[in-house]
Write a structure and sequence with these properties.
Blueprint lengths: L20 H11 L3 E7 L17 H14 L4 E9 L5 H10 L4 E5 L2 E3 L2 E2 L7 H4 L3 H18 L4 E2 L17 H14 L2 E5 L14 H10 L3 E4 L12 H10 L4 E6 L2 E6 L1
């Protein structure tokens, strides 16, 4: 099989990953991948926003680390990217980041449903007991819809992240998915099949088959990502992800070069 590119990988600069970019690249080459992309958590304008992203002063180091892997693995296509949080009021900062380097793509992600709660943070699990699950999903998808509509991002990351610890609404989320995907389709923003969900409590690829099927019917493009935080996770469960994409109707995926999209066969 010709594997799709793994576009979602981290580095130790985010404070919760291990392994150098060269080690990730070596693993990708060993697996037979021909293209990968590093998309570590972007810094905020103010350090100390949380403890799971690089500091602003480390941004240039991150770029040089990825460029070093590109030099050492010339036979492997390695893209330079960031995973950038979408938070209301931070739009100017996203524009600032975009202008700093020749990025190949931005993954736009929503982790925070309010300023103090990143819903996927295991140290804040107690917050779930204090909030209505359906309300949290609504807040999350409202922000995700704004992220997709903003045009800042080439890819939206792990599009149903609130399920990470197994918290799912009892009602139909179809209307939430519809609004989000309509925004993505309008701006030409892709969504990723993120296999990290299989390694979490939810035991399911992000996004779920219902959301992904709707995306296919609306013509929303896709990418693939392992969300690797260690070299051994590169390309993990891509067989299952490709099978899922085909099951819901995808025959193509996309890749990015300096934030320009190319469509290729799946």
């Amino acid at each position: 099989m010709l594997w799709p590119a793994d576009y979602h990988m981290h580095t130790p600069l985010c404070q919760h990953a291990v392994g150098t970019p060269r080690e990730y690249a070596a693993q990708a080459q060993k697996l037979g991948l021909t293209e990968i992309g590093f998309s570590d958590h972007s810094p905020m304008r103010q350090d100390g926003f949380d403890n799971w992203r690089m500091k602003l002063a480390q941004l240039d180091q991150y770029v040089e680390d990825v460029r070093g892997a590109q030099r050492d693995f010339p036979q492997l296509v390695i893209r330079l990217a960031l995973e950038v949080d979408y938070l209301p009021g931070h739009e100017e900062w996203i524009r600032d980041l975009a202008a700093r380097h020749a990025w190949d793509y931005f993954i736009g992600s929503v982790h925070y449903v309010m300023d103090s709660w990143d819903v996927d943070n295991p140290s804040k699990l107690a917050e779930w007991a204090a909030h209505d699950v359906t309300e949290v999903w609504g807040l999350y998808f409202d922000r995700l819809t704004h992220a997709a509509a903003s045009g800042f991002f080439q890819i939206i990351g792990h599009a149903d992240l609130p399920k990470k610890f197994g918290h799912r609404p009892s009602g139909d989320c179809g209307p939430l998915y519809e609004r989000f995907l309509d925004a993505a389709a309008k701006t030409g923003t892709a969504i990723e099949l993120n296999t990290a969900g299989l390694r979490k409590d939810c035991k399911e690829i992000y996004p779920n088959p219902q959301l992904l099927g709707l995306a296919a019917r609306k013509g929303v493009p896709i990418t693939f990502g392992s969300d690797a935080h260690a070299p051994a996770e590169v390309g993990l469960n891509f067989t299952e992800a490709v099978e899922l994409a085909r099951q819901v109707g995808y025959s193509q995926r996309c890749r990015f070069v300096q934030r320009r999209r190319e469509i290729v066969a799946l």
